[in-house]
Amino acid sequence: AAKSAIKAVLLPLLGRHPGLLLEDKGLTLALHYRKVPALAAYVHRLMAQLARLHGPGLELQCGKRVVEIKPAGIDKGTAVTEYLTESPFKGRRPVFVGDDLNDERGFAEVNKLDGVSIKVGRGPSCARFRLANVAAVHRWLGTALSGGT
């Protein structure tokens, strides 16, 4: 119910500010302002207000020009742990590739599980490995899937 109410507030904004992008990720709603960085402060204030209004149990997660409203205590690290309890992931070594601030909890959890954590691009990270860009990720995946390392 809270997610639907929040979405109902955010959808009309997309028409008024064409550079905004609303992403429904299932459990979360992310408002991207990459194309309209001048709206950063407005987006952060609005999303914080909506999380407070429709909480408790909701919190903000900020990334690179994106603000996400999500259930409190749920992040990419908890998602990794959850996936690894299910088929086909159970008993496997996790691999986590990401390029944003909100990927850090996923990297940290994968590191604890002796998995492979890969940061894409620049910036500080707890990931154990780094690739320069998406093209490098594609090359690495191609090599890994063909039996190389």
Helices and strands, with pairings:
Blueprint: H1 2-16, E1 21-24, E2 29-32, H2 40-54, E3 58-63, E4 66-71, H3 76-83, E5 95-98, H4 104-112, E6 116-120, E7 129-131, H5 134-145
Parallel strand pairs: 5-6, 6-7
Antiparallel strand pairs: 1-2, 2-4, 3-4
Helix pairs in contact: 3-4
Describe the structure.
With 149 residues, this protein is of the alpha/beta class. It folds into 2 domains: 2-71, Trehalose-6-phosphate phosphatase related protein, domain 2 (Alpha-Beta Plaits, 2-Layer Sandwich); 76-145, HAD superfamily/HAD-like (Rossmann fold, 3-Layer(aba) Sandwich). Helix content is 40%, strand content 21%. It has helices spanning 2-16, 40-54, 76-83, 104-112, 134-145; strands spanning 21-24, 29-32, 58-63, 66-71, 95-98, 116-120, 129-131. It has a 4-stranded antiparallel β-sheet, with helices on one face. It has a 3-stranded parallel β-sheet with strand order 5-6-7. Strand 1 and strand 2 form a beta hairpin. Helix 3 (76-83) crosses helix 4. The longest helix has 15 residues, at 2-16.
